[in-house]
C-alpha cells in the first residue's frame, strides 16, 4: 500500500486538554501537562502511525497571550503560528465545562485567516451531561459554518476512535517524514527536563517557573538499568534562591521527588535525580 500523511495541530485556551490529548492519543508522554498558563513553551511534535497512515501532530502554546510574561510572548506566538501554518487541519479544543461562545468565535475567526480546515473538539465530555453538548454544536454550526465536531475525554481516552477514523479518511498519499518507531521530535533528555520544569510549575506558585531554564548535565543508564540524571535549574534573579530551595531545603527536595517519580514512570526506569540551582552567571547555589 502507498503511504499516506496528514499534519494536524491542536490549539485552544490553556488547559483545554491539548497536551493530555496528544500524550494519550500517541500513548507516550511527550508534552508537559500543568494547570498554569502556557506550560507548553516549545513547539512539540508527535507522531502516530496507523497502518499506512502517518499522522503528525503539533501541540501548540495556549491562546492566553495577554497574560504571558512579556519576554516569552514572542517565542510563544512564533511557536503557535509555526505549528498552525504547517498543519493540514487545525483542531480547536474546547473545555466543555467552560463553554464561552464569544471567546470561541473570536479565536476561530482569527484562525480562519490561515485558510486551513478547522474542526472543533469538545474535551472533558465525561464532566458534562450529554444533552448539554448538542445546543453548543448547533450554536457554533450556525455561526461559524463548521462541518465537523468531536466529543472526547482526553483524560479517559473516550471518543478517540471517531477522531482517528477522521484523520485516516483525510490523509493523503505522501512519503512519511518520520520512521515507524519515532513518536516525537523531542528526545528523552527534553522530556526529563520538562518533568523538572513541571515539578517547579506545580510546587511554586509565583512567576519564578517562567523565568527558569532546566539544563541537563548528566543522562546515563547504569549497569543495573537505573537512570542517573543531573540537572541544573538556572535562575535569572538571585532572590529566587530562597523560594526554590525552601526552608531547610524542603522545597527543592519536593521538586526533586516529584520530577524523579514522573521520570521513572515515563521512562520505566528507576531514576536517581540530582538538582543544582545556579544563577545565569553560573555561580552555584
Structural features:
10 strands; seven-stranded mixed β-sheet; 2 domains; GMP Synthetase, Chain A, domain 3; single chain; alpha/beta; three-stranded mixed β-sheet; Rossmann fold; 285 residues; 8 helices
Please specify the SSE layout and strand pairing.
Layout (H helix, E strand, L loop, with lengths): L3 E9 L5 H9 L17 E7 L2 E7 L10 H16 L3 E7 L5 H11 L5 E7 L9 H12 L4 E3 L8 H11 L1 E2 L14 H16 L8 E10 L5 E9 L4 H6 L4 H18 L3 E9 L6
Parallel strand pairs: 1-3, 1-4, 4-5, 5-6, 9-10
Antiparallel strand pairs: 1-7, 2-3, 8-9
Helix pairs in contact: 3-4, 6-8
Strand content: 15-25%
Helix/sheet category:
alpha/beta
SS summary, helix count: 8
Taking the sheet with the most strands, its summary is: 7 strands, mixed
**Helix and strand sequence:** EHEEHEHEHEHEHEEHHE
The CATH superfamily title of the largest domain: P-loop containing nucleotide triphosphate hydrolases
The stretches of 5 or more residues where confidence is low (pLDDT under 50) are 35-40, 65-72
- Any idea how many domains? 2
CATH architecture assignment of the largest domain? 3-Layer(aba) Sandwich
Tell me the total number of β-strands.
10
User: What's the Cα radius of gyration?
Assistant: 20 Å
Average pLDDT for all residues: 84
Question: Roughly how much helix do the residues carry, as a percent range?
Answer: 25-40%
The geometry reads as globular
Q: Kindly report the CATH topology of the largest domain.
A: Rossmann fold
Cα end-to-end separation: 58 Å
Amino acid at each position: 500500500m502507498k503511504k499516506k500523511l496528514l499534519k494536524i495541530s491542536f490549539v485552544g485556551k490553556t488547559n483545554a486538554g491539548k497536551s493530555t490529548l496528544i500524550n494519550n492519543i500517541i500513548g507516550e508522554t511527550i508534552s508537559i501537562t500543568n494547570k498554569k498558563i502556557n506550560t507548553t513553551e516549545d513547539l512539540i511534535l508527535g507522531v502516530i502511525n496507523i497502518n499506512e497512515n502517518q499522522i503528525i501532530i503539533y501541540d501548540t502554546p495556549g491562546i492566553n497571550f495577554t497574560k504571558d510574561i512579556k519576554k516569552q510572548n514572542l517565542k510563544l506566538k512564533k511557536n503557535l503560528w509555526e505549528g498552525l501554518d504547517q498543519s493540514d487541519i487545525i483542531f480547536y479544543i474546547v473545555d466543555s465545562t467552560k463553554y464561552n461562545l464569544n471567546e470561541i468565535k473570536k479565536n476561530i475567526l482569527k484562525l480562519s485567516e490561515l485558510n486551513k480546515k478547522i474542526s472543533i473538539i469538545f474535551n472533558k465530555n465525561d464532566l458534562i451531561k450529554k444533552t448539554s453538548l448538542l445546543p453548543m454544536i448547533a450554536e457554533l454550526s450556525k455561526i461559524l459554518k463548521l462541518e465537523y465536531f468531536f466529543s472526547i475525554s482526553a483524560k479517559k481516552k473516550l471518543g478517540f476512535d471517531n477522531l482517528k477514523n477522521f484523520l485516516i479518511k483525510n490523509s493523503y498519499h505522501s512519503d512519511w517524514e518520520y520512521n515507524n518507531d519515532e513518536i516525537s521530535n523531542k528526545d528523552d533528555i527534553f522530556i526529563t527536563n520538562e518533568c523538572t520544569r513541571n515539578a517547579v510549575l506545580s510546587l511554586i506558585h509565583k512567576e519564578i517557573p517562567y523565568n527558569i531554564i532546566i539544563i541537563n548535565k548528566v543522562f546515563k543508564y547504569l549497569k543495573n538499568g537505573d537512570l542517573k540524571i543531573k540537572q541544573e535549574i538556572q535562575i535569572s534573579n538571585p532572590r529566587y534562591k530562597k523560594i526554590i530551595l525552601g526552608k531547610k531545603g524542603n522545597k527543592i527536595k519536593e521538586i526533586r521527588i516529584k520530577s524523579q517519580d514522573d521520570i521513572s514512570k515515563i521512562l520505566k526506569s528507576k531514576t536517581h535525580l540530582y538538582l543544582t540551582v545556579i544563577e545565569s552567571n553560573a555561580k552555584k547555589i
